[in-house]
Amino acid sequence: MIIAIGGCKLRYFLSLLFIISFMLYGEDTNTLIESTNIQYTTTNDIVNNSTNDTNTFITNDLVIVDNTLYINLEDALRLALENDKQLKQAEYDVRIAQAQKDGTFSDIFLPQLSISGGVNLKEPTEYQGTGIDSSIDNYSATATLSKQLFSGFRNLNLDKAQALNLQMKKDTYYDMKKNVDINTMLSFYNTFIAKENYNVYRQSQRNYSNRMNYTYIQYRNGQVSEYDYLTSKVQYENTKPQLIKLSNQYQTLKLTFLRQIGVTNLPYDVEIVGNILDATNITLPPNLSEDDLITIIMRNNIDIKNMASNLEMLEYNRRVASSYLWPTITGSANVGISTVDKVTSTGLNTYKKERDSDFTWGVSFTLNYSLDSLLPFSSTAKKAEEAELNIKKLEVSYDELRDNIEVNSRDLISLANSQALTLDSQAENAKTAAYALQMAERQYRGGSISQLEVQDAEINYLNAQLSYLQAIYDYFSSTLQVLKLLSIQ
What we know:
489 residues, 64% helix, 4-stranded antiparallel β-sheet, alpha+beta, disordered N terminus
């Protein structure tokens, strides 16, 4: 029937089919260059676009739309800090260290106060020659106040050691809090990149599908061979297994990320939203040389700070062990009151008994010195020797730690700088590959190049996009590691 229409009408009809297929296929490929300037939905966009939607609500600062929970980086950081178990344990460690510090403070300044009371019941006996029996009961009460006035500076050194321990726990807590933020950011963007890898490959699959449909139209019109059509169909079918693999990888990373921030067993679907290009805004402090960065790292590194504090604590422990070489002075004061019988004469051979109170008090000082602590083989001397040897051992480990951290830090700084250059290169490469693919598509439709050359251009574009996403992850991952060492976030 088409042949009967006539040559002119046939050419017109084929041209119309060509234009329609170009529009169908070109709708996706025209976005290739634009896709290198990646634009992603944010939670603000979701809220603004769903203002009149009755299925949109916000709970605990989280946006839920149509039974889907949307989590951005800010939400993830907040949830991670709220739900991290190790961070909560570190917080308790700070409180425990504070209680220990308060305890040593009390030992230094607060005396010991004790009170006692008693009742003595005994068989009455006659006061000699009076005919009056003693009382069957006797009551007494005593209060004693004592304080070690001098202990060879033992309590003072213990207090300083506990103060160092408290500061160590605080530093560890804040460092762990910083690590939670950094690890959350790494996991967030790692998951986000897996999502974008899936999206890029899905877009590639759509392009293959459009090309297959376009080739099929050309095949039906006799413009290409059946082999060309089958080749495009095979290319399309080959994308399905990889797309499933990338989808599963994204879902696995998302579940791991949600467990990390404490979001599990929710009755909603969860979607991670944001802008992957925000990761490229993370930079090292400007106008600082590598030596300046190393200086900051060596000053702020938590491992170095903790080992330095441990050295100080060992020194205080050595002083505590040596404090037994000093005498101790203890002072005490006590007051007491007890009931007594007072028998008085009221006349010739007549007496009377009255119950009265007897008040007593006293103050004492005690000097104590352990002579065995002067012996070189005594336990006191050996404890002091042990403390000195531990200090020397830790000093060697401290120097080794500083050397290792400096070397590793320089490697990380160099890696971060090189990844920044790689990121710029991959971004430019992705734009170039997108433009090359668009040119190849136009030339293919014009008949100047083969389908194989278009396929090569699309593979180059896909690899460039995936390499660009990987470069983003490598860049912010290495940069965050340096910022972690710098104690900067």
